[in-house]
Each structure stands twice: as structure tokens, then as C-alpha cells.
Amino acid sequence: MAGHSKWANIKRQKAVVDAKKGKTFTQLSRAIIVAARSGVPDPAGNFQLRTAIEKAKAAGIPNDNIERAIAKGAGTFEGDGSQLEAIRYEGYGPGGVAILIEALTDNRNRTAADLRAAFSKNGGNLGETGCVSWMFNQKGVCTVEGVEDEEQLLEAALEGGAESYEMTEDKTAEVFAEVTNLENLNQSLKEKGFQVADAELRWIPSNNVEVSDPDQARSLLKLIDTLDSLDDVQNVTANFEMPEQLMSVSMS
């Protein structure tokens, strides 16, 4: 199942630039609100909420903000009548690259307008629901760091119900599973002593578009960066491949 991690690798390289602004408090807080609303508002019994809180703490969000977000999700926070909903948007970037956007919003019209403007200004088009999602499959992914023995990782991954794994860089692996099995896989790997740095749901492209033109690459990365910076946007995934050298030049 090689190729699963192409987008992850792109995101990691792009993170060097993105680290200057980081994931905003708004985005991370919204993820907590939705997780608390979709299940019990207790991280001990809600895996999605637990992972959202872990990411928020890693980003330095104060505990008071986290507790407030949980209360909003549970409906126990006074004075907040806004209702967030999760929406997936789809579109095409320069060169026909397929792009999926996962958003959390309390105003669909505002979010759609912001996304449409981002696409049109950067050589892309916001499309209809279903126009590109058929090119992606959602999987659960555990990122494991400090892997010393691949055989032990494979054994632990299989016991946790994984479908496959892929070494992405030195001593770091990504282990893939069905969406419904992510929590079980995460727990199994940790019980076997592996360091799980992240557990998330990710859209995996079934095919990729090669981007080799510098102008096209620059426009595409600018589009993705613009989409990523919107408060309503939680995650952006695309199906392109790009040489590292071209990426470095395009992001500089």
C-alpha cells in the first residue's frame, strides 16, 4: 500500500513554513467542541475528544480554554448559542489537483464564500459535493516514532487490527487501519510500548497528479496555504506529487 504517505510527507515539508503561524486556537478549540458534542463530554470515554485535547495541549492552549470548549460541546456553557457543524468541501486546484477540505462552521454561507474566493484567486475551482471525494478513501492512521524494530512494529500492528504500515522517515512509521479500528490500534500500539505521536483520520488519495511546472506548483501551494489559514478549515488534503526541490523553491 505504498503511496499512502505522499500527502503526509508533503504536509511535513510544508510544516516548516506553516510553523510560523501554527494551528490557531480557534481551529483546535472547535475540534474539541465537535468531539464533545458527538460523544460523551468526557475524554476517558471519548477517543475523538481525547485526541483533540492532546493536540490542543501540545499547541499550548491553556486548560481553561480547553475546559470551556468541552463545556460548549456539552451544551453546558452559558451565553454561547452558536452551533458548529462539520462540512466537507471539494474542489480542483491548478493542474486538476483534487482537494478535499474539512471544515467546522457556524455559518455555511460565510465558509463557502471564503473557500470560493481562495480557490478563484489561486487558479482553482470550488466544486460540487462528490466531484473529487471518489478519489479518496478515509483511513485511521497512527504515527509511531522511535521505531527500532520493524518486526516488532508489524507484530503489534497486526494484533491491533492494522491493514498496513509504511516507514516514512528514519525510525518513524505510519500504521493504517479502518476508521472504526483506530482507537483499538492506538491502544494496542501503546500497550506494546510504542510511542504513538498522533492518531487521526486521514483521507488517502487513490491516485496522484504529478506537478512539475514551477508556476503551477507555486499557485497550488499558495492555494493550500490560504485554505489552511481559514479559521473554519480544519484540514486540507490533496492528491499531488511534487519533487522536493520544486516544493522548497515554491515555498521560499
UniProtKB/TrEMBL annotation:
GO terms for biological process: regulation of DNA-templated transcription. Keywords: Cytoplasm, DNA-binding, Transcription, Transcription regulation. The keyword Transcription regulation applies. InterPro entries: Integrase-like_N, TACO1_YebC-like_2nd/3rd_dom, TACO1_YebC_N, Transcrip_reg_TACO1-like, Transcrip_reg_TACO1-like_dom3, YebC-like. GO terms for cellular component: cytosol. It is found in: Cytoplasm. Residues 5-75 form the TACO1/YebC-like N-terminal domain. GO terms for molecular function: DNA binding. Belongs to the TACO1 family. This is Probable transcriptional regulatory protein PCC6912_57140. It comes from Chlorogloeopsis fritschii PCC 6912. The lineage of its organism: Bacteria, Bacillati, Cyanobacteriota, Cyanophyceae, Nostocales.
